[in-house]
Amino acid sequence: MGNSLSLVASIGVPVGVGSIIGISIAPEIKGWYKTLKKPSWNPPNWLFGPMWTVLYAAMGYAAHRVWQAGGGPLPLALYGIQLGLNFAWSPLFFKLKDLRLASIEITALVGMVAATIYEFSKVDTLSAQLLLPYLAWTSFAAALTINIYQNNPDEGRPAKKAVKEEVAGAKAALQDLQEAMATKARQAGEAAHGGASAATATAANAFLAQGGETQGSGVPEEVAEAAAARTAAARKED
Known about the structure:
Residues 160-187 form a coiled coil. By secondary structure, this protein is an all-alpha fold. The chain has helices at residues 2-24, 26-30, 45-68, 73-95, 99-123, 125-130, 132-151, 158-209, 221-237. It folds into two domains: 2-156, Ferritin, CATH 1.20.1260; 161-237. The chain has nine helices and no strands. α1 (2-24) packs parallel to α4, α5 (99-123) packs antiparallel against α7 and α8 (158-209) packs across α9.
């Protein structure tokens, strides 16, 4: 019973996680991936799903055999590392769209798969042989990734492009804010100046209405000056 459960887990983990990742990147495969320049030897999209399912099942079974044979920590540690690199490639390529980093990552994956096969061969020959198709397919995928990166250089650094766009947007927003603040300050100044002028005119009119022609006690100087100016203008008209 325990052996059966470990076998199911060994196969189920890579197949299950791989399937989830495949479902998550399906929109990018149908959309963004079609816009890339690809070589003539690029396989049809429908082939990737079945191929990876078979390869995940084979590597899971191989790892189970090594574990049963008491292979020790090194072979299984290498297997775990390469599996993590395998899972990380799709998000790097399809989600982050960082073709350069994806090319570097999958090259490292090929090396880790080769190292895993070498260590598996010391424990169980069949386990190592089960990983040979995986090594071949991963090597092919690495060549395809590098080719796509070379043919689509503008897609290689999306993070930097995003940062530049964010910085440009922030600068534009800051400039708009400064202009808005300057406009409000100017309008406030004009309103204050107009209010003061109106208040002065009102006070002058009140002063004249009371018959004042000279500065009186408690009358602001500017009000008296305005009143005097208006009186002088009225006399000239007469």
